[in-house]
Amino acid sequence: NSLFDRGTLSSFTYGMYIRQSDDAVISNNEIKKYQHGIMLEYINQGLELTNNYIHNNTSTGIYSFYSGSENYPSNPLKIVNNRLVDNYYGLYQYSSSTDNGYNRYLVFKDNLVKSNTIYGVYCYYYCQDWEVENNTFDGDNDQDYGWYSNRDGYRTEFGNNTFREHTEKDIRLEYCGTGSNSTKFFYNTYSSITVANSCQVDIYNNLNVKTVEEDGNPFSNVELEIKDSTGTYYETSHWGGSDALTDSSGFISDSMFIRSGYYSSSSTLTVNNITVNLAYGVRAESTWFNFTTDTTKSVTVPDAFRFGAVENTNTSVLYTSLSS
Questions:
Q1: 95-99, 268-272, 294-298, 305-309: range with lowest mean pLDDT
Q2: Does residue 210 sit in helix, strand or coil?
Q3: Are 31 and 39 in contact (CB under 8 A)?
């Protein structure tokens, strides 16, 4: 609940300098006109910055230096509900290329990041295991980038963020990891993105699946396997799993939050193909679809699946119909 204003002083580096202060709470302050609004140095865990207005600082709004230790995943640093406005950088996170035990476990949530000259948020190295949620990155047409991850920002999750009006890119991610280290996106709004250099960004949406007859009515008790190139999401006993057969309305037991698309070291979005294997009685077939928003997909089961088949025991060929 304090005002930190450099005023007419010719030079002053920090509005607040916080070093080795785990579990501290800094809230409801206004900090302006310094070189660095808040300096965080060697904060291992638990520090909270909330409800602060940090603006018009000549270098950074928040400078985080070797903060967020890999040893405290259950007690992350939290930067929540702050306004970072008209600084040179909004948040600058630094660790050297040889110190990958820092810049870990940060919750960056409900913040306004607006009109900072170059970067809203800049991660130099190892911004890993971050949760970036419900923020507004407003470039106001005078800021280069909303978010810029330079290197090795593994396992970061972006959810429900809005990016707009940046003069270069809303988001730029480099060397952000692949496979289990990939970045995840959920319901973000942006108009421009660069994804480059060993960086995989997986986009997730909510999917429900319904099996229907050829006339559109529900087809119940169908065995399903739903999967993509990375794994299996739903699998009933026929396919080796334990999920439930489709119910009386044709639906699977619950909707799924799965990958709808991805960027793979490229700024071009690839839509993900979902494979559906279905079986009923003695018959089975495979189909596929893709989706880009929360949706329910109907999978048509041929009416002939309700009938049996005849096997030629000499050739092991199955016949689904007979004629004279």
A1: 95-99
A2: strand
A3: no
Distances in Å between the Cα of 263 and the Cα atoms of 114, 182, 200 are: 26, 10, 6
**Position of tokens 């229907």?**
212
Indicate the residue type of 31: I
Query: Kind and range of the H or E element at 298?
Result: strand 295-300
Which tokens hold the place of 40? 């965080």
Prediction pTM value: 0.88
pLDDT of amino acid 2 = 62
pLDDT digits (tens, 9 = 90+) for 162-177: 999 999 999 999 999 9
Cβ neighbours of residue 104 closer than 8 Å, sequence gap 6 or more:
68, 69, 70, 73, 126, 128, 129
Measure the CA–CA gap between 287 and 282, rounded to whole angstroms: 17
Evaluated on CA atoms 245, 250, 252, 258, the torsion sign reads positive
DSSP letter string over 303-320? GGGGS--EEETTTTEEES
CA 177 vs CA 128, 156, 159, 228, 317: distances in Å: 10, 10, 18, 20, 48
For residue 273, what are its two tokens?
């193909």
pLDDT of residue 319: 72
